Amino acid sequence: MIEILHFTANSSAPCRQLTPILEEVGKEQSDVRITKIDVEDPKNSEIIRSLDIRAVPTLIFKKPEGKPIHRMTGLRRDTKQAIYNVLQLIREKKLPNQELEAARSQLVEELKPLATDTPIGQLIELMYRTTYEAKTKKELDDFVRDCLVYLDMNTEQLQKLKEVLEKFHYRK
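Request: output the structure for the sequence above.
Response:
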């Protein structure tokens, strides 16, 4: 059995869009149990704090009575497929590399506010979706380094993006 904790808020459009996707996953996958947790309900504050939930929607994948295995934040065009991919990795005991997942989550969270409906914003969204293709921490670091090579323009948004990527790349 694999449990998915779905941290959600009724006031969030992405959360409302994710709910039917998770209902489908729950119906199609007999070994998956989905637990919906409303972040706006004060009785859930302890679990929200203990799992460091900072944004919605957030999915926490875990074995019942076990530690979290994987975290997925936000809604993407390929969210359903991404969920199936994580479930398959868990079933095959090819759990995601925790160091990679922590680094990826941090980078994606910092890139998200820069993704807007402008061409540069769309490029940024593509970049943070591309981070999910990295299979190792080194591949993720190489991707960030390659992005830095191309970010010498001085527009305000590119400068902000460059700062986020440099902060991520040079932290150690």
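The CA atoms of residues 131 and 140 lie 6 Å apart.
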